[in-house]
Amino acid sequence: MQRTQEMTSVQPDWENFYPRPVSDKVPFFNKDGRVYDCLFAQQFNRDLLTLLFRTADRLREVTQHKDGADYVSGLLSDKRAMLYFAQPSTRTFMSFLNACHVIGVKTSEIRDTSTSSEVKGETPEDTVRTFSSYVDMIIMRHPAPNFVEKTAWLMNRTGRPVPVVNGGSGKDQHPTQALLDVYTLYRSFNGDLDGRHVVMVGDLKRGRTVRSLSYLMKNYSGIRLSFVSPKEFRMEPDILEFLKRHGIPYEETEDFKGAMRTADAIYMTRIQDEHDKAGESKAVDYSPFYFKREHLKDIKENCIIMHPLPRRHEIDVAVDADPRAMYWRQERNGMWARAALIAYIFGVDGKIR
Amino acid sequence: MQRTQEMTSVQPDWENFYPRPVSDKVPFFNKDGRVYDCLFAQQFNRDLLTLLFRTADRLREVTQHKDGADYVSGLLSDKRAMLYFAQPSTRTFMSFLNACHVIGVKTSEIRDTSTSSEVKGETPEDTVRTFSSYVDMIIMRHPAPNFVEKTAWLMNRTGRPVPVVNGGSGKDQHPTQALLDVYTLYRSFNGDLDGRHVVMVGDLKRGRTVRSLSYLMKNYSGIRLSFVSPKEFRMEPDILEFLKRHGIPYEETEDFKGAMRTADAIYMTRIQDEHDKAGESKAVDYSPFYFKREHLKDIKENCIIMHPLPRRHEIDVAVDADPRAMYWRQERNGMWARAALIAYIFGVDGKIR
Amino acid sequence: MQRTQEMTSVQPDWENFYPRPVSDKVPFFNKDGRVYDCLFAQQFNRDLLTLLFRTADRLREVTQHKDGADYVSGLLSDKRAMLYFAQPSTRTFMSFLNACHVIGVKTSEIRDTSTSSEVKGETPEDTVRTFSSYVDMIIMRHPAPNFVEKTAWLMNRTGRPVPVVNGGSGKDQHPTQALLDVYTLYRSFNGDLDGRHVVMVGDLKRGRTVRSLSYLMKNYSGIRLSFVSPKEFRMEPDILEFLKRHGIPYEETEDFKGAMRTADAIYMTRIQDEHDKAGESKAVDYSPFYFKREHLKDIKENCIIMHPLPRRHEIDVAVDADPRAMYWRQERNGMWARAALIAYIFGVDGKIR
Fold first, then answer.
1. Distance (Å, rounded) from C-alpha A342 to C-alpha A105?
2. Which of A55, A193, B93, C246 is the Cys-Cys partner for A340 at CB 3.0 to 4.6 Å?
3. pLDDT-derived band of residue C119, with 50, 70 and 90 as boundaries?
């Protein structure tokens, strides 16, 4: 209990803590100089990214043979994780779950919070603390933007903290998506991201993946960005400010065909109409921002096409068979990147590399 | 990617592929001379059945002791399966899940497709491909008759196919149910199915188990079949044609008491009123097709009573205690037969036998 | 099958069996002098409690290191349990699930009975028997008071019984909650429960935990009980009778502040308004039965504060940081106590201690 009281005295109240800038908050979620709670894409610097990517690369190599797979899945056989998904997302859920399988972490699932004790008048904080009692890690997705962070903050005040991994909170943070996106660039370019031209396309205003990706580009040098979108869904000013501050050149354009010619990576996104206030998405002609089969001849031979998925019509299904279509492998990269992250948090990444 | 293109060029389009007779399609779902995707009962020939049954027999023997169980559950410790059940069936689900446990395959579950990304406008094909990214096998149940087959077909066109096992598709195919039914006959008769009199009873028109079972009887010689049903629910002509073509004698009758006297196996079924169009089941007196306690004295000493379950009133609960009541063991046989099938598909069945 | 018939002839019909006093029924659920089906708190005598607590203590010790955790999780690697939770209770579910993870039992889950075959007209007895086919243990929670017991009774009549563990049945029995409550006392007092003053507070009329706890106090000597409740929710006469019969002194009072001064343990409960018939809970002022921050100075230095959780307002959140607040550890004790119980039922508890 001594520990609890110590932490309580060090950390400010939640109301004072939460509004601070992310950069101020990051140290509270580290432990012994390593990321402990993974909450923000901003927690990934270049060194950590490289470390995680090398771990992920090694994981997929080693697990190709049964001996290696058994070795890896024995590293964390004493650990239990809870996947608390208050917001449905089978895609992210499956990716994390199988990442746990790869490295041997046992899992329990909460995918429908309506069955939890919350119905009996318990506070969400108590509910989460309850479930944390039984496990060594919480992987959490929640619709409320602050809930995952608050859980981590709260856990750190208890006598028995467990690391919290953000599987998507509100519309702002989804750090492991950012991780897998950069990992896909890293793998496609054999680790050499510097000097690349990255083209982001679609609903840039409301897509959190393109925001995080833009942010993480500051870790690499000579990057050039093109933001291709209808004028209604342009990238938000805060990101543009950020890029200026870090000296990352960018252009905003509606000319997709022009931008794609020099692209090393084209990051497609779908229209995020679930965030519409009054059906505004319907008023926009999104078709100039589709990647069609005929575009394959217009892009560089080793340009990659990415998409966070799910897609609607942004990418023609006929494109899937092209070797440059990277989105399915991008999705699979998510499992490996997440496995690497979990291994890192539990401190066994060194045993994998 | 080379592989993808090769397969694409070899396989016809889905619209041309799907309507072909099953016998034409079977080779597309094989690999290296073995069943790769298990979709149709027609994929089981006598040799394969015997192989799977011997594997299943050996599995239950070996796992009786902890050393053997640990050996078996280590054989596929590097494999991950997804159970994608778009149609609720806890029975089949549990059977497959525990089969995976027996042979050490790690599992992830999709039991409610409403929580998947399908809601965001993704095609079902993309959804399935997404989930397949993380696993080495898909075990799938789906209400649409063609969906499981299409998934397998589609997977085989990608650069990363994984085997697909049909856990029930539409009202036609449920190959592992057929497998466990024949396995139950095999075990009950010590491997000697030839020359048996099999009596099928009930709603033969709409029950898919009796259809598959009839079909698989062609693998054994000297089989004699009796179809006992109300006239409204007689076996469909296509099966009767099939039997004639293969020289398997059958009779159609409403005289249950007469047929049961010489039976080696009585296969009871419930009325499938979920397929009613206008409550037609209510108009039928089904009670002459019940197996009652007093019938136990009328059947042969080593006749077995089977039922795919769930039952309603077709079999008196008082019959359960009789050694000839085989339906509970039949159910358990399902787990072993499925474990054997999965082991076979992953090529480790030889290490079990 | 011989075994089935033998058991059938020994056991009376359910209708005659069920109404008997628990003490009469207990032997039917034992095997070889040990508890086989764990259904009633009354099955725990002092010796068994001590055995389970020592096992639980050892489990948490051993699993602190990976070698120990791997040893323990290998003990039951050949066993499969089904968690059949017809009544939602994520808390108890998670506790049992992770208990299984600790000792290496593989699990399958039924958390929503609406997806089971019950919809096709199967009896609940058949449904349960079906699921039991695949597993070595059933852990069951059910809203009907007799369902779990009937399942155990029924399983014992089959040729393939599996042990049944009661995870909460109706409003009466929840033996593993009682187990963890006494375990919390045991740990907090270093195994010395004799002579303690235990104060139970709140809705004593309708809370099953305080009933079971009172009952189990007969296993210890010199216990003194205080029942602190609003007059509308006093402890039921049957428990008071039981205490008199066993010579356990108790007082009933509304004076919480008076009772807490000498308490060794304060067991808080919430108002059970889900059992209201006509909103009667609203008419009661429950606030005198809250444990507030300022009470911390009024209780003994080593008095512990317990709560079965979830809580509403009975305990001030500010109390959580006090070392005497035991409820979070109590919750975690549940996982260890349940793991010990399962290990005991499978007969490997000796290998842990």
1. 9
2. A55
3. low
Of B97, B311, B321, the CB nearest to C4: B321
Tokens matching residue C301: 């230095």
CB C328 to CB A131 under 8 A? Answer: no
For residue A321, give the nearest of B8, B117, B121 by CB distance.
B8
Q: Mark yes or no for CB contact B134/A89 under 8 Å.
A: no
- For the domain B176-327, what is the CATH code? 3.40.50.1370
pLDDT of B4: 39
Active-site residue set of B: 91-92, 120, 141, 174
| Confidence band of C8 (pLDDT split at 50, 70, 90) | very low
Counting as low any pLDDT under 50, the low residues of chain A are 1-9, 115-117
Question: CB atoms < 10 A from the CB of C150, how many?
Answer: 19
- A-B C-beta contacts closer than 8 Å: 80
**Looking at domain A175-271+280-330, what is its CATH homologous superfamily?**
Aspartate/ornithine carbamoyltransferase (3.40.50.1370)
Give the length of chain B: 353
pTM for this structure? 0.94
Tell me where in chain C the CATH 3.40.50.1370 domain(s) lie. Answer: 2-36+76-173, 176-332
- Indicate yes or no: CB of B335 within 8 angstroms of CB of C133: yes
**CA dist., res. C301 & res. C304, Å (int):** 9
Closest CA to C217 of C187, C189, C249, C188: C249
Q: Give the count of Cβ contacts less than 8 A between chain B and C.
A: 82
Cross-chain Cβ contact B133/A66 below 8 Å: no
Q: For residue range B34-78, what is the model confidence (pLDDT) as tens digits?
A: 999 999 999 999 999 999 999 999 999 999 999 999 999 999 999
Give the three-state DSSP class for C297.
Answer: helix
Residue C117 banded pLDDT, cuts 50, 70, 90: very low
Residue intervals of chain B classified under CATH 3.40.50.1370 are 2-174+333-352, 176-327
- Give every CB contact of residue A54 below 8 A, 6+ residues apart in sequence: A353
What's the gap in Å between the CA of A30 and the closest CA on chain C? 22
Residue of A nearest to C317 (CA): A126
* Cα–Cα distance list, C192 to B44, C55, C186, C197 (Å): 65, 17, 6, 12
Structure confidence at residue C114 (pLDDT): 60
- Tally DSSP H helices, then E strands, for chain C: 14, 11
- For chain A, residues classed under CATH 3.40.50.1370 are 2-174+333-352, 175-271+280-330
On chain A, the residues whose CB falls within 8 A of the CB of B77 are: 66, 69-70, 73
CB contact under 8 A, A117 and C91: yes
Is A261 in the active site?
Answer: no
Chain C contact set for B317 (CB, 8 A) = 123
Q: Note the ipTM here.
A: 0.92
Per CATH, which fold does C2-36+76-173 belong to? Rossmann fold (3.40.50)
Residues of A with CB under 8 A from a CB of B: 63, 66, 69-70, 73, 88-91, 94-95, 97-98, 101-102, 111, 270, 274, 309-312, 320-323, 328, 331-332, 335
What homologous superfamily does CATH list for A2-174+333-352? Aspartate/ornithine carbamoyltransferase (3.40.50.1370)
Q: Which residue has the tokens 């959580």?
A: C320
Question: How confident is the model over B290-314, as a mean pLDDT?
Answer: 96
Q: Are strands B137-142 and B164-169 parallel, antiparallel or unpaired?
A: parallel
Looking at the complex, report in whole angstroms how far the Cα of residue B134 sits from the nearest Cα belonging to chain A.
6
Q: Give pLDDT tens digits for B331-343.
A: 999 999 999 999 9
Q: What is the DSSP letter of A278?
A: S
How many Cβ atoms sit within 10 Å of the Cβ of residue C190? 7
**CATH domain C176-332 topology:** Rossmann fold (3.40.50)
Q: Over the stretch B130-173, which tens digit does the pLDDT of each residue have?
A: 889 999 999 999 988 899 999 999 999 888 899 999 999 987 78
Q: In this predicted structure, which of A97-101, A104-108, B288-292, C118-122 has the lowest mean pLDDT? A: C118-122
